[in-house]
UniProtKB/TrEMBL annotation:
SUPFAM superfamilies: ClpP/crotonase. It comes from Noviluteimonas caseinilytica. Gene3D superfamilies: 2-enoyl-CoA Hydratase, Chain A, domain 1. Residues 340-356 have a biased composition (Low complexity). This is Secreted protein. InterPro entries: ClpP/crotonase-like_dom_sf. Residues 18-40, 327-362 are annotated as: Disordered.
Amino acid sequence: MLLAAVLCVACNRAPAPVAGPAPAASTQADADSGTDFGAVSVDAPKPKRHKVNIAKTTEWPDSTLESGTATITCDTDAKVDGEGITFSDLAFFSVLDAMLPCKDAGVLRLRYRGRIAGDFTNLVERVGNMSVRMGIKQRILDIDSSGGQVEDAIRAGDIIADGNWTIWVREHAVCHSACVLLLAGGDDRVISGAVGIHRIIRIQSDATSRAELSAELHEVHDEMKAYLERNGAGVAVADFMMTVPNRSLRLLTPAELVGFGLTGRNAAQEDLERIRLVRRCGLDFVRREDAFYRAYDQQCTQVAEGVASINACGLALRPEYGFPDKTCPEESPLAELDVPATPAEAPAAPEADAGPQQTAAH
């Protein structure tokens, strides 16, 4: 009976409507298609698994962030930029120091500007792991990236998918090329900036014909499609990317982002959470949550003022549907926006084996 009720709720949720006519698609002719950005694939072996489980020790392998800049803030004010703690050393105690102010706040916003590469994957993995140790349940990735390594984007996206992240692409920020793959991993995606795709560049290729190049790209293309499918996004994104010349950039419209499953709530994550929420918070909670998100998708996600306005619209809409819910406040829609913006005094460092354990992803 419980499963039938859950499936009934899922069936009653209509596809998210798009407010107003979708703007015409546009193409930029000046896309950055250098080896540092764009959508780059390299013929390189996958990184070896860590010799140590970083979830159980403070002895993390050496890693430094060199592909961009990372800042940790403990608030959800989308208008705040350039504040917080900037760090590049990804050693255990460096990440711990950057995140300590967020423990009492219960939320962190990781602001990243730069290319998608192996050090970015390490950044997301380690910040997520430290969040589990500290009990910080609300995590936001505030991204601004022109792309990078496809393989690293897939690995980072799977880590994001396992770590309960909300992803923001704010006004004046971009998420292009390989960065678009990250959106599939988020539990929720709030997008106000430009999202664009183009063809993958194959580095170190020995191809001398279209057929040989196509064969080399086939494996990574299939890997992209498998990644998109397991994370609830449209596999057509991978096919669409292959039709846009790398020197250009095809900007996705709001309607296309909805159609590809790259904005708003993640459909795969919703299915996973629905059964758990019915057991924990009740069927009425899930029905109200579905009704809220239908209204939120229609009234809030298409506002033009930016992420802060989208968030404000959602907060104003929640009381109509009984949220935050008194029984399940942490499960309520937009719960990450309910935590205090000013953290209390920083607590002592956690023990190396304290808190729930999180398996390292690769």
